[in-house]
Amino acid sequence: MLREYVAGEGEKFLTTRHERDVETGLDNRGVRFYDSEVARFLSLDPWAKKYAEWSPYNYVISNPNKYIDFTGKGPDDPIKTFYASAKINTGEFGLKANLGGLFGVGYTHADGSLQLSVKLHLDVYSDKSKAFGISFSATEILSKREGSIAHISGGQTETKERKLDINTKDGVKYSKDDKFVKEETAGVGAFSISNNKATLEGKVEIGSGVVGAGASAGYEEPRNATSKNSEDKTKKNDSYGVVVTNSANILNE
Q1: What is the pLDDT along the chain (253 residues), one digit of tens a residue?
Q2: CA 245 centroid distance within chain
Q3: Do the beta carbons of residue 28 and residue 18 sit within 8 Å?
Q4: HSE (CB half, 13 Å, CA atoms) of 114?
Q5: Helix (H, G, I), strand (E, B) or coil at 233
Q6: What is the C-alpha separation between 92 and 171, in angstroms, rounded?
Q7: How far apart, in whole angstroms, are the C-alpha atoms of residue 67 and residue 235?
Q8: Which residues of 169-191 are buried (b: 16+ CB within 10 A; e: fewer)?
Q9: Where would I find the H helices in the chain?
């Protein structure tokens, strides 16, 4: 679709559920802005190492009939994830309890703590393919403020994650965040929404003093940031590993 300039209020979400900025005519596709007139992103792909054979400005490796890039990072980011996970954390203070993700009470805070977790996941991609995997992560928490009363919960965290993921699509992949990522969350019952994702999760967790533990199972979808400053708020990482991909023989534009 060519760029349009119209007077008054118009439809802002025009392509693949992404917001079009009315001042510039650019599509906000998560970590990057996209120019629909030239069919290119205007900044480098933060996962350019993964797609070394392609231009870092291309959209979905020039194959929009097969792929959708929801996050602006790459064409094969999962659009849905089903998971089960367990975690243990240290360095948190306060008291909290949560049963089934439906009822919780308490408050915790942390300024410099560590969380270790293991996660089984089933990822669904825009081309309808699926991948099973397991990931191990160590998350450094710069700051954390979380509270819940009955069915209402909310909080804010700043974290930096290192993750080893093994799955049937990409093989073995190691990733790490370059900087702390800020996330604000609000929820009702088992449903929560943040600036990065929407989650439906059942969980059991308890924490008292400096040690806590929990287990959860759920479903999540990535969300598109709508702020013009989303590039400063979105996770950026370096990835290394053995990556196996199947792609059509398309000209690299």
Answers
A1: 444 544 555 556 566 667 788 788 888 877 788 888 887 888 887 777 777 778 888 877 777 766 777 667 666 677 789 999 999 988 888 887 777 667 778 888 888 889 999 999 999 887 678 899 999 999 999 999 988 887 888 999 999 999 999 999 878 988 888 788 889 999 998 899 987 788 999 888 887 667 888 899 999 987 754 333 333 333 334 433 333 333 333 333 3
A2: 21
A3: yes
A4: 4
A5: helix
A6: 34
A7: 21
A8: bbeebebebeeebbbebebebbe
A9: 230-233
CB 239 within 8 A of CB 49: yes
CA distances (Å), 116 to each of 50, 60, 184, in order?
A: 26, 33, 21
3-class SS at 6? coil
Cα–Cα dist 217/68, whole Å:
26
Question: What letter represents residue 153's amino acid?
Answer: S
Q: Are the C-beta atoms of residues 186 and 153 closer than 8 Å to each other?
A: yes
| Residues 203, 137 contacting (CB under 8 angstroms) | no
| Cα–Cα distance list, 208 to 91, 93, 108, 148, 253 (Å) | 10, 7, 9, 15, 55
**DSSP for 24-86?**
T--EE-SSSEEETTTTEESS--TTGGGGTTS-TT-SGGG-TTT---SSSS-TT--SEEEEEEE
Nearest-10 Cα torsion for 244, 247, 131, 119: 60
Q: How many CA atoms lie within 13 A of 52 on its CB side?
A: 5
Burial of 123 (0-12, 13-18, 19+ CB in 10 A): buried
Tell whether pTM > 0.70: no
